Amino acid sequence: MGWWLFGSAVGALVLFFSMGWVLWVYRWRVMLGAAQREADSGDLETAERHLQEALNEAVRRYGEGGVRVGQIWRFAIDLYRRKGQIEQARQAAKQALWIAEARYGEQSLESAELHSLSAALAFEGHAFREAEALALRAMAIQSSSPSASAMEGARTKVLLGRISLRLDQPQRAVVYFEEALRVMEVPLLVGRGDRGNVVYFEEALRVMEAHAEHSESKQAHTIRLEIADLLALQDQDETALQMLEPLLLLPDSSEPTVLRDRAEAFSLQSALLSRQTNKKQEARVALEQALRLWRESTAHLTQGQHTVESGFARDLSRLGAWFQAEGKQAEAIPLYEEAIARLRKDLLEADKEAIGGWLAALGDAYRHTDQAEKAEAAYIEALEWQQAIKGDTHPDVSVLRNNLASIYHAQGRLDQAGALYRLALRSLDAAHPQHPSIPAILNNLGGICTTNGQYGEAEQAYQRALSVAEKVFGRDHLDVAGILENHAALLHQTGDFDRAERWTQRAKKIRRNNAAKHREGI
Q: How far apart are CA 209 and CA 218, in angstroms?
């Protein structure tokens, strides 16, 4: 009896320590399982903590290149993607790809799959050239492997088509879509015709939905946006709005990817509705809805995701422009300020022109609310951006110089103002001698020269301003009246009273005619 009890005790101890040893060896798997369960329940922050514990344990046991470490990195890609942290997902994909190439070979299907996934992540991060290189690599591996899935190859071609459109290569995009649809054995029932490339997106959408777990999968949402964008470019606004409708009607979700797609959908809806004169209020409501979704999306990110920040900034600036058009400069200022601050977080090459334009608009809003110092700073920075991107002779650069000069003019810094007016004119004359900004710049320069007693240069400035304004705007335009009045003031100073009176009377007639047209609603 004693021996039996002793044997049982020893067996229990052996079992206990064996179980402990197993749990200790596979602790990484326990942590990974916990992370997966938490991610499924929506607790992404706790899931990330357990993911990191699993990763640390697996690296300690198997080394950084271990197959099990690669398994954890694969889960990390999905988790970071669900959190909207595209840059972290891209780094996880790089680690998983490195392990797959080392373990299975650079020509393996595992490597092809990770190249394709990395391409999709680069696309989401607006790194289109990098996305193209990765997708082409995936396609090359898939094409050379007899065991490759035809459907996976087709999906890679659909991605390459989308990338090609972003790189302004529509013909190449069509080729990729045709190849993908042929592999998928989808009949091309509609020719290119007037609808251009839209049919290929629509067919791709139908196929992707057919092979998705849900009829409205996330991938289908993205393709809907692509189709609607393309329809909008072809001025098929009503069809584009119909394509957006399923996205607009989705219930609220806290998932960043869905929030982002819905924000883009409402943003595009707003842009389409704003083209219709009787839909301005609906367009405003859609834009405000887009901003609400962008803000919710950013609330779910622990770090900035460029596609969200960029879209959010764009729509903030659009609402700011709306307020400016209504003369509500003070309401526009905080919107522009937030848009610029968000875009600065992760500024890509494609956004540099946008930030220059928004700084210029912010400078205008500051100037019209008598915040001269802030306006000056905004214009100076905007000028640096625009010169670097567009070149010294671009009209936008000259307009900025004129606006900055107008601040100096109002502050009595006449030498600085005059130098900028002349520089703006030289830049425009070099490439755009009949640009509509020229009369305003010449009119301002005429005022500086009159104040400085440079009557000859002032006379030349007003004469040319009048000539260009009449050609560009017409003889009865209000800008023509303003130039005539300033010229008349100069003529009074120089003693040419007869011509001064003629210009004054002509300016009054133009203003009366315009007032009558306004009363008649013309």
A: 10
Contacts made by residues 470-477, CB under 8 angstroms, sequence distance 24+? 471/434, 472/434, 472/436, 472/438, 472/439, 473/436, 473/439, 475/510, 476/510, 476/513, 476/514, 477/510
pTM score, two decimals?
0.62
387, 371 Cβ separation under 8 angstroms: no
Q: Is residue 217 over pLDDT 60?
A: no
Look up tokens 């919710």; give the residue.
Answer: 296
Give the phi and the psi of residue 133 in degrees, each rounded to 5: -60, -40
How far apart, in Å, are the Cα atoms of 295 and each of 184, 298, 315?
A: 39, 5, 11
Checking 491-498 for CB contacts under 8 A at 24+ apart, the result is 493/450, 493/455, 494/455, 494/459
How far, in Å, are 131, 255, 292, 388, 499 from residue 265 at the CA level? 23, 15, 13, 32, 59
Residue ranges of the alpha helices (H) in 195-236?
A: 198-210, 218-233
pLDDT tens-place string over residues 409-464: 999 999 999 999 999 999 888 878 888 889 999 999 999 999 999 999 999 999 99
Q: Pseudo-torsion of CA 390, 394, 397, 402, nearest 10°?
A: 180
Distance of alpha carbon 281 from alpha carbon 270, whole angstroms: 10
pLDDT band at 26 (very low <50, low <70, confident <90, very high): low
CB-based contact 418:430 (threshold 8 Å) = no
Longest distance between any two alpha carbons in the chain, whole Å = 135
